[in-house]
Amino acid sequence: MADTVETDPEFPIPYLGRSVRIVGPVVNVDMNQSPHPKNQRGELGKALFNWYHNSVSKDPLTRVSAPNHFADRRNFIATVINQATTGKVNAKRVPVSDAVAMTRHIKAVARYMGADVVAIARAHPTFMYAGSRYIQDGTAEDAYEKSTPEGLVRKFPYIIVATTAWDYDKLQAHRHFIGDAAYHVSQIKGHMILKALEGYIKELGYTALRGVVTPQAAAVASGVGELGRNGLIINKTYGARIHMPDPILTDLPLVSDEPVDIGVEDFCKICRKCAVNCPTNSITFGDKVAFNGVEKYKINWLTCYKLRPYVHDEWTSCLTCATVCPFTKPNTWWRSLAVWALHTCPIPARPLLVRALKAIDDRFWGVVSQKRVRWLDYDTGIKPGERACTVAGCTAAHEADGQSAKVVGDIGYYVPLKENTNRFVKRDG
Fold it and tell me: Is residue 22 classed as helix, strand or coil in its secondary structure?
């Protein structure tokens, strides 16, 4: 790996913390070449195309919360939010004489609107997307559509990252409709919060652009968290259970936060729990690599993505790597103590501490989460196909129906791990 990189003096290479770093030229990612748009065009095979366009979930909660499994698109609120007409910037600008005070204020507003995590990053051209704006299935057209990454950064120097955390207890039901609810409802809340925050900034008289910035880059630059082996942002408070929607690029005068070190870099080198449990072997066991000028753990997104059509009768979003991550724990004093110990431990001594903490995690939490989760009319203790209720999406045991479901103690049923990735390649390749 190169230790130095030639850079534009106007835009020096940003420090992103210890978990990821820029080591070479970065080509801005065109959102039209990301998984969802490629799949919309049928470039990822028939199974994925039909899953995306033609599948209606058996679960009614999924039908109103997931991006593409509804009976009618108008029942999915994020569609309405994302495709709404872009609001205008108020001509009467509120003057900002104190950027520090405005930073405190905008963070308070974001939290009031429902954000669990808010941070500010200094914009950099390498963080920008290439091509047209893109937010889920909507667009974010604006007057700066044709601007270069450098031009955007010159005019809009700050990025606001505001996001929500997935419910911890529901997330334990990974590979189940309950886990889907934790993920997708959090996603909906994130869209609503950011749309409201975007409107608030415009009412102050400043521009707010979305669908412009890579969320992970903004997250590590702003100190939301560090980038884990699983390709997820791992936060000090919530671990890997935070959603990363498109942040806001703005010219509102703010003060940027700094990258953090909570020990993710040192933990991921040793742990590999996410790689062990990944159903499609999409997470590497190996070292980081330089990909598109960035040194990080490289995820095989294609095999991860291609699993979905084959499991949508039981769940839509895997979430296993987020659930098993040792950082994903309840917000208790002992979790805070463990993160504090990692943060304060001298870096050379961290491997010993990591091994001790991982051993504790394996002993008390298991190598993979198999906890039985009951919520609303769902019960992960009942195997799909053996549910005692005929209501679509319900997995509850209704003894009055004269049926009995097989439930063993406090262990939930989850579809088996380690699906054969080769069949996706053969069938769709």
Answer: strand
Count how many residues are written for the chain: 429
- Backbone φ and ψ for 146, nearest 5 degrees, come out as -95, 5
- According to DSSP, residue 240 is labeled T
Residue in this structure with the two tokens 């110990």, named with its chain if needed: 341
pLDDT above 90 for 230: yes
pLDDT > 90 in the chain, percent: 53
Whether 123 contacts 158, CB under 8 Å: yes
Dump the DSSP string for 282-346. -S-SS--EEETTEEEPPP-HHHHHHTGGGTTTT-S---HHHHH-TT---S-HHHHHHHHHHHHS-
CA distance 105 to 18: 29
Q: Write the CA distances from 109 to 102, 198, 235, 300, 359, integer angstroms.
A: 10, 11, 21, 37, 41
CA neighbor of 59 nearest in space, from 146, 198, 185: 185
Phi, psi of 304 (to 5 degrees): -60, -45
Cβ-contact 198, 248 below 8 angstroms? yes
**Averaged pLDDT for residues 287-301:** 94
Answer yes or no: are the C-beta atoms of 162 and 61 closer than 8 Å: no
Calculate ∠ Cα 360-366-368, nearest 5°: 135
169 or 401, which is more confident?
169
User: How far is residue 237's CA from residue 166's CA, in Å, rounded to a whole number?
Assistant: 12
Beta bridge partners of 84: none
- Inform me whether the pLDDT recorded for 408 exceeds 70: no
Instruction: State residue 404's pLDDT score.
Output: 46
Give the tokens for residue 332: 């208790």
CA distance 298 to 291: 7
CA distance 235 to 262: 8
Give the HSE-up count for residue 138: Cα atoms under 13 Å, Cβ half-sphere.
Answer: 22
Residue whose entry in the numeric block shows the structure tokens 């742990």: 271
Residue of 220 and 1 predicted with greater confidence:
220
State which H helix or E strand residue 38 sits in.
helix 35-40
Close Cβ partners of 28 (under 8 Å, ≥ 6 residues apart): 125, 126, 128, 129, 130, 149
Count Cα neighbours of 422 within 13 Å in the Cβ-side half-sphere.
0
Q: For residue 349, is pLDDT > 90?
A: yes
- Token pair of 355 as six digits: 């091994």
- Tokens 């669990």 locate to 116
In tens, the pLDDT along 206-223 reads: 999 988 999 999 999 999
Cβ proximity of 162 and 247 under 8 Å = yes
The predicted model gives 256-284 an average pLDDT of 94
